[in-house]
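FORM 7B: Structural annotation worksheet

SECTION A. Query
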Amino acid sequence: MFFSFDGIDGCGKSTQMELFIAWLRHSGRRVTTCRDPGSTELGEKLREILLHKSETLIGRRAEMLLYMASRAQLVEQVIRPALDAGDIVVSDRYLLANVVYQGHAGGLRVEDLWGVGQVAVDGLQPDRILLLDMDVTAAVRRMNREPDRMESQGLDYMQAVRQGFLAEAARRPEIVVVDAARHIDVIQADIRRAAEEVLS
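SECTION B. Predicted structure
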């Protein structure tokens, strides 16, 4: 079983993912966790390039392909072996993020991103994508750190990211939208209910 978490930066994704993983492990399930980009030697090097501010110019198409390369390695080295071993995999972001950040918000053709993505992940998609949604301005207020390279592109860009997530959720049944503007425990309860639908 394969779950991914996604949403705009500041939505509480990391907190909810940690609670979800603890719940799965407490129920006796073996869990492999990962982050996209990252979780492999190649992925971590590409993450540094993609998310840390620098003078290096990265065009949208190159940006998209760097994310795809990291994800291809992640699937081959971490996700598929874990699934084959019977583990539940929980990923912090996955292909949907690429489609939204570089497609809906970044101007690349969404269909092209899904197509390239299918090749990069060799067809492997999450059974459930848990999309945490909330107002962009409220999410930005929650962040208590310096924004990374992607987060530094302004409120209009982040609004487009949020709308892109919601547009994909409207047409893809594996995406479950969870209202992230509520109490932590209420959000987590909804996430567990959505997960149990496929775990059972």
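SECTION C. Observations
The first strand starts at residue 2 and ends at 7. The chain has a mean pLDDT of 94.

SECTION D. Sign-off
Analyst initials: ____
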